[in-house]
Write a structure and sequence with these properties.
The protein is of the alpha/beta class. The chain has ten helices and ten strands. The strands form two sheets. The protein has a six-stranded mixed beta sheet with strand order 6-7-8-3-9-10, sandwiched between helices.
Length: 241
Amino acid sequence: MAAPLLETRSLGIRFGGVQAVRDVNFSLAEGELRCLIGPNGAGKSTFFKLITGQLQPSQGQVLFRGRDVSAAAAHEIARLGIGIKTQVPSVFDGLSVRENIWLAAIRLHRRRRAAAAAVDEMLARVGLAALADRPVGQLAHGQRQWVELGIVLSTDPQLILLDEPAAGMTHEEVLRTAELVREINRDKALIVVEHDMQFIRMIASRVTVFNQGAVLVEDTIANILRNPVVRDIYLGKQAAA
């Protein structure tokens, strides 16, 4: 059996008297797409921060391709191939779409000509070629999300973490984002935190449910939607129906 791309073992973090994440054993295969769901305060975003080195665990381990990265800094983990797109886009509003993506591409490709070609490819990939020279601050919310996704992809990570990528989007933007996620998953692994169950249905085959800082259950999306415990703590009877 192939070794997992990402694995956490008894992972936990405590803030004072609060156990924000506790004893999380999680495994993600190469090329897998997994959705993380759970009520607000369940520990999903904290779990992301532990994976990416933004927080250091109080206990347990994070392993990426078998390497223990529990004590690694965020920039070291990024260099190993883990990228994250946050819920609030981290972009330069005063720069154009092209310039934002260029800043990521030049770090990977080094040579200006290669970076410029990579930027053109990325603009087409995320559907922003027509807006390439527009300042990011003038874009709609969904377009700004796609800019940051293009920035993350331009660093060529092997694992991408997406924190609520569909939040605040129009129906058409959600459909486009789901299409993008599926396309990215052709050659990259993803973990997606999301509240929009319709979006999750579009992209997920397997779902991990967090509750009170721990993994409650892992299963297929169909079984998760039928699970009465998940329904009661998170989805609500109407959504599950």
